[in-house]
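User: Predict the complex.
Assistant: Input components as received:
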Amino acid sequence: MNYEAVIGLEVHAELSTKSKIYCSCTTEFGGEPNTHCCPVCTGMPGTLPALNRKTVEYAIKAGLATNCTISPFTKQDRKNYFYPDLPKGYQISQYDLPLCKDGFVEIETENEKKRIRINRIHIEEDAGKLLHGEEDNNSYIDYNRTGVPLIEIVSEPDISSAREAKSYLEKLKAILQFINVSDCKMEEGSLRADVNISVRPKGSNHLGERTEMKNLNSFRSVYRAIESEIARQIHVIKSGGKINQETRRWDENKGESYPMRSKEDAQDYRYFPEPDLPPLIIKNELVERLKKELPELPDARKQRYVSEYGLPEYDAQVLTSSKELSDFFEETAKQSTNVKAVSNWIMGDMLRILNERNLEIVDIPFPPSYLVRLITLIDKGVINGSTAKNVFDLMFDTGKDPDNIVKEHGLEMLKDQSFLLEVIEKVIRDNPNSLDDYKKGQKKVIGFLVGQAMKATKGKADPQILNQILIKRLED
Amino acid sequence: MQITIQDIEQIALTAQLELTAEEKERQLEKFNKLFQDVEVLAQVDTSEIEPLAHVQSIKNVLREDLLQESLSQEKVLQNAPDQEEGMFKVPKII
């Protein structure tokens, strides 16, 4: 029997407000332990929370950007649990009246667009960070993160594979970055995902028992954890077993998950309306103002790259996958007359170099205008394509502009016909068989000889002139 | 509605309380008394009444997104029963 997976994601994103959700401590990442804390976020008796206006506005923006309805009336609730990551003994969250409801985002699957529905987006406070002693029997707590504003985005179980889950997460990340409400740095925990997974016979309408996987803090973890859990569940069912509804913890190093003890999983949060915070009436004027403030979203940008710049759908998709990348492309494209080349350079060599050197867009040591200049140098025939690749590498090494690099290293294309003829004569002398081969009709020696001549000129020969001279020489 | 000793045990568990048999009995009695009172309340027709979100009629109390100085690490840890390297130290909980 074939099985299919039914997957839903709960995504937590830290909002990039300056101060925490209920107090005026900084939300900055890191810092010495317990130095971003005050009586409110450490839950001292007698303190009262005061809601940060920006938290509400950012959450509404996230809701609008994901096609949600914004609730005109909303409140906050207490979620009670005992775990020392929250000093109060409860987390302020939202229960039955979330700020945003019933939205969706679209993802690209192999052959179609797919709509992933969003059940709700609510606001809540982040918890502190626990370190567990390796050798001793203690845990250590840093409350700096406690009270950093979060939105939790809960999807409907519309996702059917690890790949779709990754696309969905990438889309959410791009949207939240574009609207500037979260930096979405998974490595710093500002974007995290919990995954609900069940499997069922393909085509069935019945939902299988589901498990929840926590502790996923990279795209890779999400992908691997889902693949692993789908395989595990199918294996259990095929061998006659039963899936237990349980929470499992993903171990990225071992590449497997294990069930958390049932005590940890005793989910009775005893929610009740937060008595320290009055409800919120969200006026239409506020929603309309925030709607006007929304910038162009990734999907719209993608469409524009296709229609305005004539880029292939795939290129447009990659270029709009992050705000930084898209902004860099846009800045470069605006100044260039050869947008297709800009796209190719960014999609190809630039992403490769960033990847190899483990750099982010913000680390690029030169402005977009330098890439424009590099492309102009190629288009004007000052340097050839392979030299340009070296120049681009040197731009990353030094941050210098391409004109200077070309001048400094003497990289201009060699166009002098008599010089290039000399080079060719030498290459033919060194490879006497190739001339005979050519005469026997083996045209592919041309490629070989061009390669040798290029090598001899350190890649600087004008390929067109070189080709012409070579063919003329061979025909003689 | 009558509640049982099992309900009391569940409530105690979620509140992380350890109760003796005698305490459980006493709580059962108290809870059942409380439930009787609630059942009187439950007879009131509330079909025309909006659920209560807050006991006061205030709404939309918000503060601006401004920073103020946090406490020193020393102050934050002042009441901690145990600490190490600037962190609260508690029995291991995973």
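Chain A touches chain B through 51 residues (CB under 8 Å).
Let me know if you want any component modeled separately.
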